[in-house]
Specification:
Blueprint (H helix, E strand, L loop, with lengths): L1 H35 L2 H17 L6 H21 L1 H7 L8 H22 L1 H18 L15 H16 L9 H25 L1 H7 L4 H5 L1 H24 L7 H18 L6 H7 L4 H11 L2
C-alpha cells in the first residue's frame, strides 16, 4: 500500500511539473509575441493615456485609447523595419526577415489612427501627427550626409519620452477643458518617468546601438555617470510630488504617483547592475504603467 501511495504521489508530481512547464512555455512564447510585434508597447501607450484621463478626472474615451494604441503600434513597427542592424544584436529573437509585414502593420496603424483623428476632430489629428512624424524622422535616413534623429546624442531618449508624454497629457485634455497647469504637470511626470525607462533600455542596448551608429546618453556618459543621471532625473519627480501636494493637486492619486517614483528607483538600481536581463526589462520597465494605471483606476479615481 505504501509503495502504491508513493507511486501515485510521484505520478501526480510529474503531471503537475509537466503542466507548469507547458504553462511557462506558453506564457514565454505569448509574451515574446507581444513584445516582438510591439503590441505590448502599444497597450502600455494606451495605459499612459488612461492615466492622463484619471488624473484629470475625465471620463475615459475608448476612441482616444484606440487612437493612442494604433499610433504607437505604427511608430514602433516602423522601427522594426529601420532598426534591423541594432535589433539583430539587441533583440535577436525579433524576426528581421519580416520587414514587409512590419511595414504593412505600420501603414495600417497610421491609416487607422489618422482615420480616427479625422472623425473625432482636427485637434486630435495634430496631436496624433506629432509622434507619427517624429517617429518617421527619428527612424528613416533621407541622406547619408544627414543623420537620423536617433543618431544625434540624447535625441533618441528625449523624443521617445516627449512623444509618450504628449499623448498622455494632451489626448485626455481634448475631451474637456483642462487647466494648462495640470496638462504641464502631467506631461512632466510622464516625460521624466519615460526618460528613466528609455535610458535604462539604452544601457541594455548599448552594443547594438554602437553598431548601428546610435549615440545614446549611456554611450557618451558611461556606466557610472549614466546611473547618476538616472537618479537625478527620477529625483526631479520627488520635487514634482512636493510641488503638486503643496498646490493640493492630484491628492487622491498621490499614493499611486509616489509608487511610480519609487518604482523608478528600483528599476535603476536593479537593471544598472543586471544589464543582460533584457526580457525581464521589457516586462518590468515597459510594463510599469500596468500596475500604476490599475492603482489609479481602481482605488484613487
Amino acid at each position: 500500500m505504501t509503495y502504491l501511495r508513493v507511486s501515485y504521489l510521484e505520478a501526480q508530481n510529474l503531471t503537475l511539473q509537466k503542466c507548469f512547464e507547458k504553462v511557462h512555455t506558453f506564457s514565454s512564447q505569448f509574451f515574446s509575441f507581444l513584445t516582438s510585434s510591439c503590441l505590448f508597447l502599444a497597450l502600455n501607450s494606451a495605459l499612459v493615456v488612461t492615466i492622463g484621463f484619471v488624473l484629470y478626472n475625465t471620463e475615459i474615451s475608448l476612441v482616444i485609447l484606440t487612437a493612442a494604441f494604433s499610433v504607437t503600434l505604427s511608430v514602433y513597427t516602423l522601427n522594426r523595419v529601420t532598426d534591423k542592424t541594432e535589433d539583430s544584436i539587441n533583440r535577436p529573437e525579433v524576426g528581421v526577415n519580416y520587414s514587409k509585414y512590419y511595414l504593412l502593420v505600420s501603414l495600417a496603424g497610421f491609416a487607422f489612427s489618422l482615420g480616427i483623428g479625422l472623425i473625432e476632430g482636427i485637434s486630435l489629428v495634430f496631436v496624433l501627427a506629432f509622434p507619427l512624424l517624429g517617429g518617421f524622422f527619428y527612424s528613416v535616413r533621407f541622406s547619408r550626409r544627414i543623420p537620423r534623429l536617433k543618431e544625434v546624442v540624447g535625441v533618441k531618449s528625449i523624443l521617445v519620452s516627449a512623444n509618450w508624454a504628449l499623448s498622455g497629457s494632451v489626448l485626455p485634455a481634448l475631451m474637456k477643458p483642462v487647466d494648462i497647469e495640470l496638462v504641464l504637470l502631467v506631461f512632466i511626470y510622464i516625460f521624466f518617468s519615460l526618460l528613466v525607462n528609455t535610458v535604462i533600455f539604452d544601457v541594455l542596448d548599448l552594443n547594438g546601438d554602437k553598431v548601428g551608429g546610435v549615440k545614446t546618453i549611456p554611450f557618451v556618459l558611461g556606466s557610472r555617470r549614466t546611473k547618476l543621471f538616472l537618479i537625478l532625473v527620477n529625483s526631479c519627480l520627488v520635487g514634482w510630488l512636493i510641488y503638486s501636494a503643496s498646490r493640493s493637486l492630484f491628492l487622491s492619486c498621490m499614493p499611486a504617483l509616489v509608487f511610480g517614483v519609487l518604482y523608478g528607483y528600483l528599476m535603476i538600481g536593479y537593471f544598472m547592475a543586471n544589464r543582460f536581463k533584457r526580457k525581464l526589462a521589457e516586462l518590468l520597465i515597459d510594463g510599469e504603467w500596468i500596475p500604476l494605471a490599475a492603482i489609479l483606476s481602481v482605488f484613487f479615481r
